[in-house]
Amino acid sequence: MGLLCLGTPLTWDETSKYADHVREHGITQFLHILDRAKDRHGDDFLWGDEIEYMVIAFDDETKNAKLSLRQTKILASLNKSITDLKADASDPMLTPDFHAEYARYMLESTPGSPYTGSIQDLLSVESNMHYRRLFIRRHLNTNQVPVTVTSFPRLGAPGIFTEPHFSPDGAKPSHSLFLPDEVISPHERYITLTTNIRSRKGHQVSVNLPIFNDDETPRPFVDPTIPWQRSLHPVDNGVALKDHIYMGGILFGAGCCCLQLTFQSCNIEEARCMYDALIPMAPIMLALTAASPIWRGYLSDVDCRWSVLSGCFDDRTAEEMGRAPLRENKYVIPKSRYDSVGLYISTDWNNKAAYNDINVPYNQEIYTRLVNQGVDKLLSKHMAYIFIRDPLVILSETIDQDDEASNYHFENLQSTNWQTVRFKPPPLQSPIGWRVELRSMEVQLTDFENAAFAVFIALLSRAILAFNLNFYIPISKVDENMSRAQKRDAVRQGKFFFRKNVLPPGCISPTMTTPSSSGSSSPLGWQDGNPPKEAKLRNGFPRVPPPPMPVDTPVEDEYEEMSMEEIFSGKGATFPGLLGLVEAYLDTLDINPSERLQISKYVDLVRRRANGSLLTTASWMREFVRSHPSYKFDSVVSQEINYDLMVAIDEMYVFLLEELSAFLTVRLQREGRLACSRAFTPRLRAIASEWTA
Ligand code: ADP
Ligand code: MG
Ligand code: MG
Ligand code: MG
Ligand code: MG
Ligand code: MG
């Protein structure tokens, strides 16, 4: 979750005094970055995933699955192990990175170094994820397991749900009625962020999610479990809506897990194209990965986490939300700082001005300054929009920076604008280039699924570049898709705005294998009409310039509502579907049949999620709850149901472990030991003893 430097955080009053200072120097730092990196060209396609976990502690006697708050100890132990391993492991993939996350029950892992564009690397993603999970597992107590659940079903429900247990009475930084502050990671940055978001806003951040109306759910539903007697902070009063699950406190959002992917581009232009192309993909992938139907012990009528995050990180004041006339604040800001993207930024001619059709307030002074420094208008507006926000955490030791050598103030705002897609400039003093991060996906229960979505998006990103695909639809339609994506069962029941023709003008559908006879350039933009035969995922540039745009089609005619199946499997003569595009891209690579078979397992998962023949994680969880013998069809997800759900999720992992790659087996044999975790059921113990024999 961004910068984690040590230091002394300023109070909110002090922080706001330095807001202009941070913005001014942040932009100076950005200009220095741009100056150094704008002509940077030729970076390879490198990419990586981030996976977030919750550590669950099972109490088999009382049938309780609790959140374990041992993050600090676990991380210390993980990092010691990594340091030891680094001393003798030459393969960086054997030494993944583990990071803290906002809640003390959370961990994040990333691969030890980014994946390259080789097919071998593509096919190692799943075992890499397995390896990281098992690595964590080996550092936990015997009753604990890491699970990749997007939202913990009973977070904030009454009763003991953390180990050790802390009372939410008197929660200070978070002012939450439901959650003890001890759940927040002890790092000062997180505590300060919590206090300052609330202070800036002027009251508690909160969210009301519609309750899932089951057969026996009381109507109207007035939540009897809200601990009003704990009303330390009267602001909670009156904000809990009936027929909703009320959640107050940033942790309800910040305590969710997700799957993020970062892709390096060969230069800034390619990164801007990739950023724009992934913007319309963000809601589509959110719907497809939906995995969070249960909140604070209730089934909700949504399947995704995003609106909770949006609400919990919304530091806008009443004035900024347009609910009071502007006095103290300068702008009415339509979106939370955790929200979908505000504007497209590519200078490609495909990016018509009409697509940026929502109100994006921006800092005029910063905009003018950037434009005067020669930065084009779109990028200037993007930064001036990011910089409309205030810094939330400032450490006293970091106020004065050498703007040529530091990107600290820039990152302060950059990394606290949590949009669905992030445009990441090259960090200073690092070999890393221009990157784009897709941040909307929900984490899946198994690494097979996480790998499938990672591999699919990696391939799609290459297809976008190779075929010069155009995914543009107006941003207002992307926003509409964001809200549709989160509805219950959106994948099967929802329709989404999508572009009718994503291929460059004059191009035949890539699912057709014969090259177009018309026109001088090849159908897919390859100079000699032959795709490059290379078993490697490549950057797209230099691209063959696309033919000039035909006489304008009105923007409203460029897109239509499609089902998820149509978006993925195609519609009509012109749209081959995202899977058709990925398959066409795969056809251009020199992959052997067994590699292709392995990739097709992942592509098939995506296909089957999209056509509804496989349940999303959210639907699976909902059905699990509704078919549990003790469920009363009243939307309540009890401690026992939650326990059984977590056990089922853990058993899924144990089952998949049987299929672990040889890579892992060798690795564990060399270590000479396996942790004895609760999940080492007789079946797993048998596998484990085989390995270590
Ligand atoms: P953040 O939390 O800021 O989004 P992380 O450092 O947690 O970022 O994760 C960054 C991801 O980017 C990791 O998966 C990492 O492997 C990947 N990565 C690292 N270097 C590069 C690079 N040069 N190009 C693309 N991806 C990279
Ligand atoms: Mg994270
Ligand atoms: Mg990260
Ligand atoms: Mg980070
Ligand atoms: Mg690393
Ligand atoms: Mg990230």
TrEMBL record:
InterPro entries recorded: GCS, Gln_synth/guanido_kin_cat_dom
Q: What class of enzyme is it?
A: ligase
> Would the keyword tRNA processing be found if you checked this record's keyword annotation?
no
Q: Where is this region: Disordered?
A: 508-550
Q: Where is the signal peptide?
A: none
Cite the GO molecular-function annotations of the record: ATP binding; glutamate-cysteine ligase activity
Biological process (GO), any one = glutathione biosynthetic process
UniProt-listed Enzyme Commission number(s): 6.3.2.2
Tell me a GO cellular component: glutamate-cysteine ligase complex
SUPFAM superfamilies recorded for this chain?
A: Glutamine synthetase/guanido kinase
Annotated metabolic or biological route of this protein: Sulfur metabolism; glutathione biosynthesis; glutathione from L-cysteine and L-glutamate: step 1/2
From the UniProt record, list the reaction(s) this protein catalyses: L-cysteine + L-glutamate + ATP = gamma-L-glutamyl-L-cysteine + ADP + phosphate + H(+)
Keyword field: ATP-binding, Glutathione biosynthesis, Ligase, Nucleotide-binding
Q: Where is the composition biased (Low complexity)?
A: 509-523
UniProt family annotation: Belongs to the glutamate--cysteine ligase type 3 family.
Under which name does UniProt file this protein? Glutamate--cysteine ligase
